[in-house]
Specification:
Helix 3 (108-113) links the parallel strand 3 (92-96) and strand 4 (116-121). The radius of gyration is 20 Å and the shape is globular. The protein contains twelve helices and eleven strands. The longest helix has 16 residues, at 36-51. Helix 8 packs antiparallel against helix 9 (244-250). By secondary structure, the protein is an alpha/beta fold. Bound molecules: adenosine monophosphate and manganese (II) ion (2 copies).
């Protein structure tokens, strides 16, 4: 059993934040290709820093400055800057939802050079980088850790902070469906909703408003899915892939494929589900899910990726069939 942050680590994180002057530069960073938890926990915490009086807070992530449309209207989105506009030499760096330094790209250097840094995360595969480490593998989302630090800093929840943390919590729990959806998750959700935010409206905006082209693209990619009943020790594996040409044909940005794993993993005949998404020629972002038969985090870590026991990812190379061959073999090595 892996424990969350110790009392000393919480105290050290509070001290790191308090060590910054109100006009010092504070740089917040989340992982490449940010999802709802990465952006929600980072922006919610950034708003909290504003409430504390910090005047120079910026938020960023490595790579192309593409914020998925559903998250563009998050409170605190005005804190976001493209990677080149991040503070060059910040006094304090805070990192959100990042399992390993590789997910920080060139911004890893900013973290290493900062006089103070705090890492907030919940990945079982977290590699233990950064100054103060608030890593809780039992937390359903990084926003749970962010809430813990905000409350220790004496920042009360308000509707704007709550909306950010709620989006993070709802996305990482699959709308409160996954195993991590504990009593304390619902208690946090209750505290967030008590600020007056509207879960129905938020969910519609985040989960239920996709362009028509994204739906058509999803239809085509799901249509080519393959079921392999004998894989994963007979528990079954289902997989599909999407290319950059597919995206182009439907005029869609890559992030519309981030939720494609959800219908794939709903297939009853398969324990393991795989979506292989092209990011460049011969390079693929691989999403892995299991219903319990396989530790997909182990599979991902062995390929240089990371994640959680039942949800993980890595970067694969070659043709989609090469990537799937690798996954099929590794899944058999990581049966529970
Ligand atoms: P995804 O399939 O992209 O939704 O990712 C599932 C989980 O695996 C998330 O917790 C991600 O943060 C993690 N993950 C995905 N890709 C990587 C990677 N290349 N390195 C580390 N963690 C990853
Ligand atoms: Mn994430
Ligand atoms: Mn997360």
């Amino acid at each position: 059993m892996t424990l969350g942050p110790s009392a000393q680590q919480w105290a050290a994180a509070v001290a790191a934040v308090r060590s910054a002057g109100l006009d010092d530069e504070i740089q917040l960073i989340c992982h490449v290709n940010p999802d709802g938890d990465a952006l929600g926990s980072m922006l919610g915490f950034g708003l909290g820093l504003r409430r504390l009086g910090f005047t120079r807070v910026r938020a960023t992530f490595p790579g192309d400055f593409v914020v998925p449309t559903p998250y563009q209207r998050l409170p605190g989105a005005d804190l976001l800057v493209p990677e080149p506009d991040a503070f060059a030499d910040p006094r304090l760096v805070m990192v959100f939802d990042v399992a390993s330094e590789s997910r920080l790209g060139a911004l890893a250097g900013r973290l290493a050079a900062a006089p103070a840094s705090v890492v907030l995360d919940h990945h079982a595969s977290n590699t233990g980088f950064g100054g103060v480490r608030l890593v809780d593998p039992q937390a359903a989302a990084t926003s749970v850790v962010a809430d813990g630090l905000l409350s220790r800093l004496g920042v009360p929840l308000d509707p704007e902070i709550a909306e950010c943390l709620y989006v993070a919590l709802a996305t990482d729990t699959g709308s409160f469906k996954f195993d991590m959806t504990t009593v304390s998750v619902h208690e946090l959700a209750a505290r967030l909703i008590a600020t007056g935010i509207r879960p129905g409206e938020i969910s519609r905006q985040i989960f239920d408003s996709k362009p028509f082209g994204a739906m058509k693209l999803t239809g085509e990619v799901l249509g080519r899915a393959v079921l392999e009943p004998a894989a994963a020790g007979g528990r079954g594996m289902v997989w599909t892939y999407a290319t950059l040409a597919d995206l182009e044909r439907y005029g869609q940005p890559p992030y519309v494929l981030d939720t494609l794993i959800d219908p794939v993993r709903s297939v009853a005949e398969a324990d393991v589900s795989v979506v292989v998404k092209q990011v460049a020629a011969g390079e693929w972002s691989v999403s892995l899910r299991s219903k319990g038969a396989v530790d997909v985090s182990g599979v991902a870590v062995s390929q240089g990726g990371g994640g959680h026991r039942l949800a993980a990812g890595f970067t694969g190379y070659g043709e989609p069939s090469d990537v799937v061959d690798t996954v099929r073999r590794l899944v058999d090595e990581h049966l529970n």
